[in-house]
From TrEMBL:
Domain of life: Bacteria
Species assigned in the record: Candidatus Chromulinivorax destructor
Name the record gives this protein: Phosphoribosyltransferase domain-containing protein
Pfam families, A to Z: Pribosyltran
Family: Belongs to the ComF/GntX family.
Lineage of producing organism: Bacteria, Candidatus Babelota, Candidatus Babeliae, Candidatus Babeliales, Candidatus Chromulinivoraceae
InterPro entries in the cross-refs: ComF/GntX_DNA_util-trans, PRTase-like, PRTase_dom
Length: 228
């Protein structure tokens, strides 16, 4: 009975998503103002999304990752990111489109795109992975391959409520590499896609694992970065 109710819930969620995305009149996902074209944000909200400088993130000895972000983590983009917790995939598609329109992509050098995965239980509950949606759209836009290199091998707590040290411990052995793809990254420039960069624990855990297989370079491209 419980499984049946859950499947019905997923079906209704997908039906709502289809209606909202393809049929309902376009509106700003932040202020709800009506718009003529189907976009994430109206012009008033969009002008508040300001670019930030890249962040040089030290991973380990001779291992650094330059982190590019579309903007700082605050509204209106914050609202679009957290919508994933309510099983709403629509903002993810819009965020992916916005990422593809960033001038960053014009000079960001990469051969292969990878994304931060969800644990299978969380993916099953949510029905999508925001980072994967963004990665696939960037792949289509740039013509670069997207590979499921990273596997979320351990179910972890949500990072938001944890301290810096707790986040690092929470992600210990959380990832593994898909043996089908790990040989493809040797000598290649890799870009890691995620929606949010806070303390960097997630990117660090993923990058440390990838560095073990001798890529030429690793960068990260995220929707937002927390700026203190």
């Amino acid at each position: 009975m419980k499984d049946s109710c859950y499947m019905i819930h997923l079906y209704l969620q997908k039906l709502y998503t289809f209606f909202t995305y393809f049929i309902a009149p376009p509106y700003c996902l932040f202020c709800k103002q009506s718009m003529l074209e189907r976009q994430a944000l109206c012009s008033t909200c969009l002008i508040t999304v300001l670019p930030i400088v890249p962040y040089d993130f030290h991973i380990g000895r001779h291992q650094d990752v330059k982190v590019y972000a579309m903007a700082a983590y605050k509204d209106p983009l914050r609202k679009l990111i957290v919508a994933k917790h309510f099983n709403n995939a629509i903002p993810s598609w819009y965020l992916a489109k916005m990422m593809c329109e960033q001038s960053i992509l014009q000079y960001l050098e990469f051969d292969i795109i990878v994304f931060i995965p969800l644990h299978w239980t969380r993916y099953a509950a949510r029905g999508f992975n925001q980072a994967e949606i963004i990665a696939q759209e960037i792949g289509r836009h740039t013509g670069k391959p997207v590979i499921p290199l990273l596997i979320r091998s351990k179910k972890t707590q949500f990072q938001a409520s944890l301290s810096v040290d707790q986040r690092a411990a929470n992600l210990n052995n959380a990832f593994s590499l898909n043996p089908k793809y790990q040989h493809q990254i040797i000598g290649k420039k890799i870009v890691i896609i995620d929606d949010l960069f806070t303390t960097g624990s997630t990117v660090k855990a993923a990058a440390q694992l990838i560095f073990l297989h001798n890529p030429l370079k690793i960068t990260a491209f995220v929707v937002c970065r927390v700026v203190s």
